TrEMBL record:
One of its GO terms (biological process) is galactose catabolic process via UDP-galactose, Leloir pathway. It comes from the Bacteria. SUPFAM superfamilies: Galactose mutarotase-like (SSF74650). CDD domains: Aldose_epim_Ec_YihR (cd09022). This is Aldose 1-epimerase. It comes from Antricoccus suffuscus. The lineage of its organism: Bacteria, Bacillati, Actinomycetota, Actinomycetes, Geodermatophilales. Signal peptide: none annotated. GO terms for molecular function: aldose 1-epimerase activity; carbohydrate binding.
Amino acid sequence: MTTTDVHPSGEQHEITFGKQRATIVEVGGGVREYHDGDRPVLHPYDVTAICDGAHGAPLIPWPNRMADGKYRFDDIDYQVDLTEPEKHNAIHGFLRWRSWNVTDQGADFVTMAIRLHPMSGYPFTLDVSTTYRLSNDGLTVSTTATNLGSSALPYAHGQHPYLSPGDGVVDGCSLELQAETRIDTDAERQLPTGLEGVAGTPYDFREARKVNDVQIDYAFTDLTRDSDGRAWIRLTGTDGKTAAQWVDAHYPIIQVYTADTLHPDRRRRGLGAEPMTCPPNAFQTGEGIIRLEPGQSITTTWGVRLEG
């Protein structure tokens, strides 16, 4: 391999099914692109670029923000590095910039895995594997975490795909998210301050309507679910096609982000739709944190497809 073969996101693993194709990357173990035919379903980043805005990455062992990087678990206080220093937060866990390994692969699926060894602030051993699979139901993403240590550990999961509007920006798209409640945050550090019903607010997308110039970077909860236990978020582009994403019952929260803080060339060109097993700052508050006992595993699943 020459230096010109080394991409910022590492090795590229393409999977296909019919007209669908997705590329899963070594760095962060995330999905860099997902197309159905010529139409992007997830907004991509270029193979020559560094992943921006956590595009497609698993967020482990916690998603979103942790105030001051501090938490308490089983009566012990822990401190992790501040990865959002300007806001004095730790954000999106430990695995975004680490190399993941392929443990199984076929034409239409790939399994990426990594072991998180004990470290300062998180002295636990966690095995993680994420399987990306294409089928008639689109792209399905299942993540299994296993506690390999001798004591219980705190765990949460999120992932950071961006639904694609097709061409252009999200402003002209219609958004549907049947969520009754928004988790409000402060402007300075984006930490939770309370709950607000979406009715009568600019954030009510229970019936599909245009995004227009609304800026969103909030977690939504109290999700309506279908008979299969799936909650959905749908972004319909001006071409009439819909990037439709679902989350299973392990995810009570979807964070929606209109990407207003990305580089101007990337701003509002995809809609962050982040499944989360817990709310922001959960490691500190304990809300929604999954306690994994020694040897215990948990699998969480979400998916996305093109409709219309």
